[in-house]
Design a protein that fits this description.
The protein is an alpha/beta fold and 309 residues long. 35% of the residues lie in helices and 24% in strands. The chain contains 9 helices and 15 strands. Strands 3, 4, 5, 7, 8, 11, 12, 13 and 14 form a 9-stranded mixed beta sheet that branches. Strands 1-2 form a two-stranded antiparallel ribbon. Strands 6-15 form a two-stranded parallel sheet. Strand 3, helix 5 and strand 4 form a beta-alpha-beta unit. It starts with a helix and ends in a 6-residue tail after the last strand.
């Protein structure tokens, strides 16, 4: 039953086998045995796509309900015994993982030693169902309206540099020499993203600047490294430099000007929403985020299909 549901969700025998850590032949045998036991054909198969038959659609509804109940029962017993166990699959943007998630994971592992957490760091998000991902960290948008997304971190852009470079800096970004500014390159574009500021109580004073410094990167880690080396001024999300500012290695400039914010979400499928492993991981994410960076939990989540601009 689990194999059948995974095949339908993945749309492929091979992807289902990968998600379940089974051989392709084992998945095929499971489906064949299930169809033989039920006396019906559950799946239409051809060279281009796979889809459930009418009987397969009906069976799918019942199978999901049964498997959800089984998972809930197992999780309830495990939580009562204080022994959560099993595999947890997590996907995260690379920079977020390096800055916040990976340094905190040893604490999660110590707290739940029987949970095996597999973390994939990627800036190319995958479909949660196809890859059997339990929790995915997304920024600003999720790729499917059927996903359940919980906001976990609201990051603000900071303009920063080393204390030595900060000494002669002006009090306002209107006087900033953009030849000292290092930018972030968007995907497949040769020019860096602009820097946007607003000022005043009504936010009507708007300033847009374009970095013209000696180097630009498509990596936040590389950008921060260049700033630490004294190459110039950078604009980066606070999550990537907060600890460096606390250490005094970088200084934030222009605190009276407002900059845009970005929101990180923990997304999961509805079928995994009641999983105790998912719940404790989401609670852990909330725990490791500073209270001032926790966004409104009732905000609207934008949807954007994977692979679109």
């Amino acid at each position: 039953m689990s194999v059948f549901v995974r095949v339908v969700e993945a749309g492929s025998f091979s992807r289902a086998a990968e998600a379940l850590d089974l051989a392709n032949a084992s998945v095929t045998t499971c489906i064949r045995n299930l169809e033989r036991s039920l006396g019906v054909t559950l799946l239409h198969r051809d060279t281009r796509r796979l889809r459930p038959t009418e009987e397969g659609e009906a069976y799918l509804v019942h199978a999901r309900k049964i498997l959800d109940s089984v998972q809930e029962a197992e999780s309830d017993v495990q939580s009562r015994l204080g022994r959560l166990r099993g595999r947890l699959v997590v996907e995260s943007p690379i920079s977020f993982a390096h800055a916040l998630l990976c340094p905190a994971l040893p604490l999660f592992a110590a707290r739940y030693p029987d949970i095996s957490t597999s973390v994939t760091l990627t800036n190319q998000p995958h479909h949660l169902i196809e890859r059997a991902i339990d929790v995915a960290i997304r920024m600003d948008k999720v790729e499917d309206a059927e996903l359940v997304a919980k906001p976990i971190y609201e990051a603000r852009y900071l303009i920063c540099c080393t204390p030595e470079i900060a000494i002669p800096m002006p009090d306002s970004p209107t006087e900033l020499d953009m030849r000292q500014c290092l930018g972030v390159l968007p995907e497949e574009r040769p020019t860096p993203n602009p820097w946007v500021f607003t000022n005043g109580s009504d936010g009507k004073e708007r300033l847009v600047l374009r970095p013209q410094g000696p180097v630009h990167f498509n990596s936040n880690e590389a950008l921060v490294g260049a700033a630490l080396a004294g190459v110039g001024v950078i604009r980066v999300l606070d999550i990537f430099v907060n600890y460096l500012i606390r250490q005094g290695r970088l200084v934030a400039l222009f605190p009276d000007w407002q900059t845009p914010t970005r929101t990180f979400y923990a997304a999961t499928t509805r079928s995994r929403l009641n999983s105790v492993k998912v719940r404790v991981f989401n609670e852990f994410l909330a725990e490791i985020v500073d209270e001032k960076n926790r966004p409104d939990s009732h905000r609207e989540v934008k949807v954007k299909s994977i692979g679109t601009s």
